[in-house]
From TrEMBL:
Organism (species): Rhodoferax aquaticus
Family per similarity comment: Belongs to the ABC transporter superfamily. Macrolide exporter (TC 3.A.1.122) family.
Gene3D superfamilies: P-loop containing nucleotide triphosphate hydrolases
Domain ABC transporter: 2-218
Keyword field: Antibiotic resistance, ATP-binding, Cell membrane, Membrane, Nucleotide-binding, Transmembrane, Transmembrane helix, Transport
GO cellular component, one term: plasma membrane
Source domain of life: Bacteria
Gene Ontology annotations of biological process type: response to antibiotic
Name of protein: ABC transporter ATP-binding protein
InterPro entries the record matches: AAA+_ATPase, ABC_transporter-like_ATP-bd, ABC_transporter-like_CS, ABC_transpr_LolD-like, MacB-like_ATP-bd, P-loop_NTPase
MF terms (GO), sorted A to Z: ATP binding; ATP hydrolysis activity; transmembrane transporter activity
Amino acid sequence: MLTIHQLSKLYGPTAVFANVDLAVRPGEFVAIMGESGVGKSTLLNCMAGLDTWDSGSVQVDGAELSTMKDDAKAALRREKIGFVFQAFHVLPHLDVAQNVALPLLLLQRKDDARVHTMLEALGLGALGSRLPQQLSGGQLQRVAIARALVHSPRLLLADEPTGNLDPSTAAVVMQALVGQCRQHGTALVLVTHSSAATAQADRVLRLTAQGMRSDGALG
Ligand SMILES: Nc1ncnc2c1ncn2[C@@H]1O[C@H](COP(=O)(O)OP(=O)(O)OP(=O)(O)O)[C@@H](O)[C@H]1O
């Protein structure tokens, strides 16, 4: 589903990371940990073709990102990738249902029934017409998860999705995130500092300046 080979990224003369190898199978849940500043968010952006790199390759569902033009990468992202960020990034002037519907509209696949199904699946059924400012942090992140998965992407990239949440809300949100990915066969790459968030991962990896290493195989 996602294959990264010998990926290296520099800022000026300084390597952020080097020689990163990673292969994520369809439906697999891989958690990536690592010290602050080691390049986890940068690596996630490379996986989505949102950032550039200096050597190595990134393939998403067989497509090599380094040789693709920007509009082709944007189309691949819209079709095959979902994102969840620490800061939610829910659009403030759209209600909950409209936020969740957005990826389908961008794909010209308007589908109210699908939006309804996702809202119900994430416990947001009664909140569809609320504006984001009327929601709690945990509810906002569940909106972001519903939006990230509404178009059934093959790959979900999540950057510290529980970083702004208290531990019990974080557990509920992680349960929703992992449950939905498992149910839909979506591969999940999760960047996190939280060992609680990695508990259900198939593999936990650690990004270091020298590359990626296993942090203990869990299955
Ligand atoms: N535009 C830039 N120019 C120079 N250095 C940058 C730039 N953007 C990011 N960096 C550096 O790249 C490194 C990787 O940043 P990144 O945010 O990917 O790390 P991270 O592992 O996700 O950190 P954290 O866990 O704190 O979120 C950091 O040391 C950062 O200072």
